[in-house]
Design brief:
With 433 residues, this protein is α+β, with helices and mostly antiparallel strands. The chain contains 8 helices and 17 strands. Strands 1-10-9-4-3-2-5 form a 7-stranded antiparallel β-sheet, with no helix packed on it. Helix 1 runs antiparallel to helix 8, helix 3 crosses helix 8 and helix 5 crosses helix 7. The longest helix has 26 residues. It is globular and about 80 Å long. It starts with 19 loop residues before the first helix and ends with a helix.
Length: 433
């Protein structure tokens, strides 16, 4: 499934904090990974492996942080935390995005302590060192102190990209060079939804007691979708199956799905909307899968009958019956772009056995709560699905810690799990080479 990637596309490697003996053990695990099977237990349980994940994956690659709807005005910010890192993602006065490490250059205190808010200058609450929105130190005085060069003590910066309203961050000095090529793939799919004209209807944070890779593996397959009764009302549970692999009890659903797919593709062609599957999850550094797919029932949204959950169409979309544009990006995000709302998902690793999953529902910025949409109805399906997924992930985390755990085979419908793991192994081997 993999192919060679030019070394010019790879991020700069850093010296690992994992000691040499442990690093050699991890290199051996990477080299002997059994294709088509789940990973060995240390990948999910070993703190040193987690440290290396933070260096090689989250320290080197583009990570989805937030949508522009979360920071719509200059001065708005969110703080994003994963592993040992805390970042400030700030909408600046020029309309761009600044990403700053949330670490005061005096004695290391967190500068901003809230998850979100609005600020002018950034003032550390410990000794009032004050920084401009671009991170420059502008105030650090005290009686009797000698002068020092403030330019040497600006907040450290990270890289950012705002692609059609999705904000990605990278803390590497030299990020992977292929992200712009990946962005060129997905931007035409999501641009018609016009995220710059949306607002946050609701945001949910769930702390899952599981390794971040288990969270991502669970997301990358629908083999378990019988465990999502609310979602199955609108999302065809045949996702990932083929004519050869669809089970007998889903044959009727499969045929209904094929009819809905043909009708959706005809509408997309009529409106000039891209819909074809692009699947390069492990054949590029910034791995991606994107497509526009039919929904069951009315085919409009994630509801019991498939009907719209907001009365307001997004952007310049001409029709509510546009299914969902589904996107997966390595390493930490997935998305559903519908005609009436958008849902973004991001997984932020906390430690080797805990992951924060953040889900954000966006609606048109002129949609009125209680008139155009009901928050409980809008969020019901994925709130329940997220809780069910949390339980599945935690069952797996409990299992991989057992001495009885052995690697198990992925089924054919779990090919995207294999692609995710293959992507992960490639990136880890590149970093540790």
């Amino acid at each position: 499934m993999s192919q060679a990637v030019s070394s010019s596309l790879l991020p700069q490697q850093n010296t690992s904090r994992v000691d040499a003996e442990k690093l050699a053990e991890i290199q051996q695990l990477l080299a002997t990974r059994r294709e088509g099977f789940s990973l060995e237990a240390p990948f999910y349980t070993d703190p040193d492996m987690f440290q290396l994940d933070m260096e090689a994956i989250f320290g080197q690659h583009w990570v989805f942080a937030a949508s522009i709807a979360e920071i719509p005005e200059p001065g708005d910010y969110v703080t994003v935390e994963y592993g040992p890192y805390s970042l400030i993602v700030l909408h600046n006065d020029d309309g761009g995005i600044n990403v700053l490490h949330n670490v005061c250059r005096h004695r290391g205190a967190r500068v901003l302590t809230q998850q979100s808010g609005t600020t002018g200058n950034l003032v550390c609450g410990y000794h009032s060192w004050t920084y401009s929105p671009s991170g420059d130190l502008i105030h650090a005085s005290a009686p009797g102190e000698i002068d020092f060069d403030k330019q040497c003590f600006a907040l450290k910066k990270a890289q950012s990209r705002n692609i059609a309203g999705l904000i990605f961050v990278c803390i590497a000095d030299e990020p992977p060079e292929d992200f712009d090529a990946t962005a060129a793939i997905f931007e035409p799919y999501i641009a018609p939804h016009e995220l710059t004209k949306t607002k946050v209807a609701y945001q949910q944070d769930i702390l899952e007691q599981g390794n971040w890779k288990l969270v991502m593996e669970n997301n990358r397959e629908c083999y378990h979708c019988d465990g999502h009764p609310e979602l199955a009302c609108s999302l065809f549970p045949t996702w990932g199956l083929t004519d050869e692999t669809v089970p007998t009890h889903l044959q009727d659903v499969w045929e209904r799905n094929q009819d809905a797919r043909v009708a959706l593709e005809q509408r997309c062609q009529r409106y000039g909307l891209p819909f074809a599957v692009v699947e390069e999850l492990d054949t590029r550094i910034a791995g991606i899968r994107i497509s526009r797919e039919a929904l069951d029932g009315a085919g409009e949204s994630f509801s019991v009958d498939g009907r719209r959950l907001s009365k307001k169409l997004l952007g310049d979309l001409p029709d509510f019956r546009l299914g969902r544009c589904s996107m997966h990006l390595q390493p930490n995000s997935w998305f559903h772009f519908l005609s009436d709302h958008v849902i973004t998902f991001s997984a932020f690793p906390i430690n080797d056995h805990q992951t924060l999953v953040r889900t954000t529902w966006l609606v048109a910025d002129d949609a009125v709560e209680g008139v155009d949409y009901d928050v409980d109805a809008l969020t019901h399906t994925w709130k329940q699905t997220n809780l069910q997924d949390k339980a599945f992930v935690e069952l797996c985390q409990q299992g991989v810690t057992s001495p009885a755990y052995e690697q198990g085979p992925y089924m054919k419908s779990e090919y995207q799990v294999e692609a995710f793991i293959n992507w992960y192994i490639q990136r880890m081997q590149e970093y540790t080479a």
